[in-house]
Input
Amino acid sequence: MGTLILASNNDQASLNLLSSVLDLGGWGESIDFDHGQVISHSNREVQILLIDEIHIFADGIDTKHEELTNFEIDDILVLSRHVSSSKTPALTLHPIGVPGGIPHGGRGVAGGINGELTPPSPRFAPLFRIMREIAIERGMDEKYDLTVEATHHGPHLNNPTMYVEIGSEDEQWNDKEAADVWAEAISISLGLEGETQNGLWQGVGEVLLGIGGGHYAPRHKSVIRDSEVWAGHIIASYALSFDDPGDGQEKSFSSWKHVLRKALDSTIQAFPGGEVFAHLDRKSFKAWQRTAIIEELGTLGIPVKRGNEVVERER
Output
């Protein structure tokens, strides 16, 4: 597989992460292209692309990279800062897209295209588990929240993508120790030291599609953390628009159905041959919303599983 690691000169955490990745060794010289600086790895089909613009607005950068370098991209890791209103220190990762943005087809406020989702990287769930193990071994769980996030923001890309991030302020963005945790996790995932890649999709396995809950998806995270399941998009409740005009009146489902189908189609695209199932944060929905979602998934042939069904079966 050909993996592109995307970094930005306009993001301090991205540069900190990039520095730690480069410190691993095995990289060639930087070559200037029209779209940025490119560095190739000597042992793996992996390239780094350093661009000047902020990455969330770099729509189509993967297509441009392939055209200019003749490097075939299979998946993308974006190195990024994480920002939160709570200022909580965090090591986090997530798929990308703008599932709840309106009007559909318009430019997303934080990049991407409203109503469109980039395919999720199959490395998402395995990389989270790798990062978490390394962070705990180094005692970083005492300083950082080790978490995942729901699908959000741009850019809009064609290839499976995820963001890996350090948050949430300057102190953390420049934390070399935090960046080194991510660098080691990325190295293990990509097999940069000549080892077998960890978490490479082989066309077989159960794939979680997370639906509902808050931005940091605690119920979906617990299933990903405590099992070997793969994971696609995670759609937070705020991205699902339900109109409930009241008893005795027809309910409108068009907006949330659009998001649900986009998330499903994108996840299936990223996991050819996978057994996709939906995991609902049931308490985040009203009863009629939950029923509607389950019925819609049924028409699409997607089973709904509870977290304990997945976790307990693997123990």
